[in-house]
């Protein structure tokens, strides 16, 4: 049999050489497209479900949110284990699937089960599916820095400009903001003034919520043209909140500013980002499951160069952690070992 194969190869030298050349070209092409990572994910396939219920204790989260979710998700096909964790205002359900399960098939099945499980949790609890990434998907960290800007301003640039631009990069699952301060309107109510004006705290909450809204109406025609009628009411500054009417007493309107002090302050936070002993703000880029980290990081760097033009003068995006170097060193080590073995 072996002699027969050798004889055929000798009689068809050109065909053998051409086939061998095609195999080499195909091999090099496949090598360039094959996802290579210095930290391969060998863990079990898992899908995460997040539950947010601000201000609630871990016991309330466990009893009223996590327990209904866990029992509702246990019937998901090919699920091996369902684990959960409850914390202050937040809960997490971790679903482990059987080996060989397609990642996106598993996420689809979880979404289907969530539609049924949501009806058993409080309406003001927010249930979301985790990003389509793994625990090793944090391939790129960066900071947003700029002289003359405070942490709140830099965090706003990160949240409303940088994060959205990087999320649009092909292969990126999510960009999480870390560090800095999230700006928010804060209404500091004086209880003595509430009593003096005979106002309840829920009256203040209802008035602010109902005032922060735009409403639409019909159109009217004049001179052969149509004009759109709108009621514009979105809050734009502190003064808009201060002048919201809560009620009236003996024909005199009671404004928010009569019973409270309104300021722009930082949202309560439970963590910070430190760089060389200095507090900074930035983001973490999560790679989508199954993507090539080298190519994704290359796209991220290219996108950063493009969006840097739109940042205020003096503000820059500085890489904080880049897995490219680790991957390249791992590849070089592998190449050296293969060459030595050959």
Automatic annotation (TrEMBL):
Name the Pfam families on file. ACR_tran (PF00873)
Name of this protein: CusA/CzcA family heavy metal efflux RND transporter
Report the GO terms under cellular component.
plasma membrane
Signal peptide limits: none
According to its UniProt entry, this protein's organism is Candidatus Taenaricola geysiri
Q: Which keywords does this Swiss-Prot/TrEMBL entry list?
A: Membrane, Transmembrane, Transmembrane helix
Give the molecular function GO annotations. xenobiotic transmembrane transporter activity
The record lists the membrane-crossing segments as: 12-29
SUPFAM superfamilies assigned to the protein according to its UniProt record, in alphabetical order: Multidrug efflux transporter AcrB pore domain, PN1, PN2, PC1 and PC2 subdomains (SSF82693), Multidrug efflux transporter AcrB TolC docking domain, DN and DC subdomains (SSF82714)
Q: Does the keyword DNA-binding apply?
A: no
């Amino acid at each position: 049999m072996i002699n027969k194969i050798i004889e055929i190869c000798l009689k068809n030298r050109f065909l053998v050489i051409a086939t061998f050349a095609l195999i080499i070209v195909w091999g090099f092409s496949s090598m360039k497209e094959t996802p290579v990572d210095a930290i391969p994910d060998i863990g079990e396939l898992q899908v995460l479900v997040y539950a947010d219920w601000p201000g609630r204790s871990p016991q309330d989260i466990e009893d009223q949110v996590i327990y209904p979710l866990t029992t509702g998700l246990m019937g998901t096909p090919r699920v091996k284990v369902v684990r959960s964790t409850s914390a202050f205002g937040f809960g997490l359900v971790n679903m482990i699937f059987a080996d060989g399960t397609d990642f996106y098939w598993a996420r689809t099945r979880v979404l289907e089960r969530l539609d049924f499980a949501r009806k058993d949790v409080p309406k003001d609890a927010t249930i979301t599916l985790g990003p389509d990434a793994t625990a090793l998907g944090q391939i790129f960290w960066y900071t947003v820095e700029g002289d003359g800007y405070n942490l709140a301003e830099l965090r706003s640039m990160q949240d409303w400009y940088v994060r959205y631009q990087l999320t649009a990069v092909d292969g990126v699952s999510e960009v999480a903001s870390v560090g800095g301060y999230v700006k928010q309107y804060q209404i500091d109510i004086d209880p003595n003034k509430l009593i003096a004006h005979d106002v309840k705290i829920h009256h203040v909450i209802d008035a602010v919520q109902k005032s922060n809204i735009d409403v639409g109406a019909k159109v009217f025609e004049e001179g052969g043209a149509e004009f759109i009628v709108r009621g514009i009411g979105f809050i734009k500054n502190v003064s808009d909140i201060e002048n919201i009417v809560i009620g009236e007493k003996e024909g005199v309107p009671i404004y928010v500013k009569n019973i409270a002090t309104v300021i722009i302050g930082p949202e309560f936070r439970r963590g910070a980002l430190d760089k060389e002993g200095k507090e900074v703000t930035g983001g973490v880029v999560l790679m989508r499951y199954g993507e090539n980290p080298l190519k994704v990081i290359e796209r991220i760097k290219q996108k950063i160069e493009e969006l840097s033009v739109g940042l205020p003068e003096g503000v820059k995006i500085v890489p904080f952690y880049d897995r490219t170097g680790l991957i390249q060193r791992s590849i070089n080590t592998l190449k050296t070992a293969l060459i030595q073995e050959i």
